[in-house]
Every structure is written in structure tokens, then in C-alpha cells.
Amino acid sequence: MKSLVVNCGSSSVKYALFDMEGEKKIAWGLIECIGLKEGFYSRQTDKTPKIKDALEIKNHTQALELIINDLLDKKTGSISDVKEIAVIGHRIVHGGNVFSEPVISDENSKEGLRKCFDIAPLHNPSNYEGVLAAEKMLPGVPSVFVFDTAFHQTMPDYAYMYALPYQYYEKHHIRRYGFHGTSHKYVSQRAAEMLKKSAKEIKIITAHLGNGSSLTAVKNGKVIDTSLGFTPLPGIVMGSRSGDFDPAIIPFLMGIYPELKEPNALSDMLNKKSGLLGIADSSDMRGIIEAKSKGDKKSELAFKMLCYSVKKYIGAYFAALNGIDALIFTAGIGENSAPVREEICKGLEALGIEIDLAQNQRSGDERFISSANSKVKIMVIPTNEELMIAREAVKTLSNKK
Ligand code: AMP
């Protein structure tokens, strides 16, 4: 059985085809700059090396057409008939409070998805466009929506509510939703397997540290709190997003810089010009670490700010969970940056969190990096959102049958 995973951004389509027997990724690729004169299409399979072409791609339907034709290519393709694709799993950024689990695409669920356009205007309409394009290109193949927010829907109201006038929640659904749910779910399930325990009997903190980052407190397999909110802006310091800060700074700055009264300019400043980039002129942790090693003070500051913000969330979620069995690091920084993991864990011995410095330096796949004495297991688990979406799509389809 094959499951196709599709992730449509406003000007991009990322895809991966899995053979679900053995959960093997057999073809994958990315189309970028859709709608521009020069777009890019890179793809590869488990049998063929990466090819990258520059070409003009007008819209998502044309992008999907290219992808499907390549998958069917007589020489290099991975399938000989579209009927081999049993299901398409679509990554959908925001399910609002309409969706708490993956759903099969039909008129009802599409209507529900359209209702979530308002709260994710940058992402959901493109995700939806991808659904329509895939349905046009692959008629009869069921589509499943897999939401970034769904795993977080188990949060209790006192964790997801903001202390703003209640009417904003009632009228506009302003509340914490959380993101990166597919990643947090994947690594928390893997953590349980690696600990040889049921997810239902452990308490963990998952730290997804990438360009966008979030921490999640997971109790007995269910999310009880997460650091991203109504949007992917709050929480810890990120690549170019601010993370938490005093919201009264916004009207204060608007009084000084009238251009910030324009919503797009303000959103740009907070989402694209803040975080590591705002402090140290680079949103890339590798660049920050290199510049810091050469004595750049702002890079040192940015590094410490990010690690300190993660440390504070670990403390908060340790309290919310009344202790934890495991702390999981994942995503670009969490999986690859030993200095970041070391700086975060340093000084958490009081919580029973003790890193093994030698193990932490080792690179590789899934691994334990806690010391023998550490009460809390510290683990590095590479995330695999694509595989999780492929699994969820298959599971949702078979639950329906
Ligand atoms: P992601 O959004 O998960 O792709 O993660 C992107 C972030 O991971 C960027 O800040 C990268 O600098 C960071 N990253 C990737 N590899 C490394 C590495 N070897 N050391 C430090 N940071 C890394």
C-alpha cells in the first residue's frame, strides 16, 4: 500500500511517496517559486539521484501534474498506475477548534477547513488549494487532512485560554492552538517505544528546535500544554520569530514608528526580523555558533537567549507535569546541535536532568544522551513528520472502512 504525502505552501509543494509495507520512502521532492517566472523542481527516488530543474510552474495543479507524471515515468517512476496510491495525506497547518484529529476529505470537512482560513490566512488557503489540485489530478484517490494543531487539542481550557476579554474567544476563537503537532506526536510515540513503555504511562517534554520551535508537555500520550499559541509566534526564541515578549511593546513602538501601524509591516518585524536574526543578524544556528566562537558578542547573546528560553519552558512544564520521565530533543537544532543541548541541560540537575557530555557529542540517529545517574532520560529523536502524516492518512482511511 502506498501513501502520498503532500505539503502545499503558498508558492511551494513538497511531497513524499511511502511504501507502507516497511514504511519506506520511495520518492520525494520539492517544487518552489510557483507562480514566478523561474521556479525550481527537485526530486529523487530511492533508486535515482537528485535532479533539479529550473522551470516556470504556474499553479499548484500544474505542480501536482508534474509530480504525478514523474511518479509514473516508465524509466524512473515509482509507480505504474495512480491506483497504486491508496491515500493522499495532506499537511494542513491549522485545524482551529474544528478538527482534533485527521479527517477524510469530503464536502463537510472541506467546509470545516474553509472555516479555518481566517485564523491561518497565510497557510490554510494554500493547503486547501493543494487538496483541490490533488483531487483533480488523482480522481478517486481519497485525501486525508492531517493538522499541525490536532495533537494539541487535548489541552485543558486553563492552558489554552488567554486572559483577554472572554468575548474574543467566543467571537473570534482567540486561544492557544499550538503547532508542530505532527512532530511532537511522532517523537513522543518513538520515545515511548525507546523507553519500552506505553505512551499512556509516561510524562515527557518534547523540544522541537528548528527554525520555528516549540516545546510541548505530554502526559500519558496527551498534550497538556505547548509553547506556540494562536499563531506560531510566541514561546521560545526562534530563527526569525520573537517568541514571548511584552505585548505592550507593540503600541509603544507604533507610537515611534508609524510604519509599524501597517499590519503586514508589524507581522514582518515580529515573524521575519526578530529572534536570532533580530539579535545577531543570522537566523541559522550554525552561523550563530561559528560567529560566537570567533568572539561575536551578539551571537553569544542570541545563543544564550535561545537556550535560556528553552530552559525556562522545561522548568514550567516540569511543574505542570509534576515531574517527567523523558526530555526529547528534535528538529534541525535539537537533533544536530550538541552545544545547544548542553547549554539547555546545564544547571537542571535539581530536576533530575543530567546530560552525558560525551554521549551528547555523538552524532547519529535516535539515541539517549543522559548520564547513568540522570533520573530523567534525555533523548535525541530525529523527527519524521512526513512518515507520521503517511501513517495518519492510512490509519484514518482504515478506521473508516
Ligand atoms: P529545521 O527548521 O528543523 O530545518 O531546522 C533549521 C535549524 O537547524 C537552523 O537554525 C539550522 O542552523 C539548524 N541546524 C541544522 N544543522 C545544524 C547543526 N549541525 N548544528 C547546529 N544547528 C543546525
In brief, what are we looking at here?
With 401 residues, the chain is α/β, with parallel strands linked by helices. It has 15 helices and 14 strands.
Helical percent range?
Answer: 25-40%
| Global Rg | 22 Å
Bound molecules: adenosine monophosphate
| Strand order in space, largest sheet | 5-4-3-2-1-6-8-7
The largest β sheet comes out as: 8 strands, mixed
Order of helices and strands: EEEEEHEEHHEHHHEEEHHHHHEHHHEEH
Q: What's the CATH H-level superfamily name of the largest domain?
A: ATPase, nucleotide binding domain
Class inferred from helices and paired strands: alpha/beta
* CATH class categorisation of the largest domain: Alpha Beta
Average of the residue pLDDT scores: 96
| Low-pLDDT stretches | none
Number of helices: 15
Shape: globular
**How many β-strand runs?**
14
What's the layout of helices and strands?
Layout: E1 2-8, E2 13-19, E3 24-32, E4 39-45, E5 51-55, H1 60-71, E6 85-92, E7 103-104, H2 107-115, H3 124-137, E8 143-147, H4 157-160, H5 166-172, H6 181-194, E9 203-209, E10 213-219, E11 222-226, H7 249-256, H8 263-272, H9 275-280, H10 285-293, H11 297-321, E12 326-330, H12 331-336, H13 338-345, H14 357-361, E13 367-368, E14 377-380, H15 385-400
Parallel strand pairs: 1-6, 6-8, 9-12, 12-14
Antiparallel strand pairs: 1-2, 2-3, 3-4, 4-5, 7-8, 9-10, 10-11, 13-14
Helix pairs in contact: 1-3, 10-11, 11-13
Description of the structure:
The longest helix has 25 residues. α1 crosses α3, α10 packs across α11 and α11 crosses α13. The chain has 2 domains: 146 residues, Nucleotidyltransferase, domain 5, CATH 3.30.420; 193 residues, ATPase, nucleotide binding domain (Nucleotidyltransferase, domain 5), CATH 3.30.420. The chain is globular, with a radius of gyration of 22 Å. The two termini are 15 Å apart. The protein is built from 15 helices and 14 strands. The strands form 2 sheets. An 8-stranded mixed β-sheet has the order 5-4-3-2-1-6-8-7, sandwiched between helices. The protein is α/β, with parallel strands linked by helices and 401 residues long.
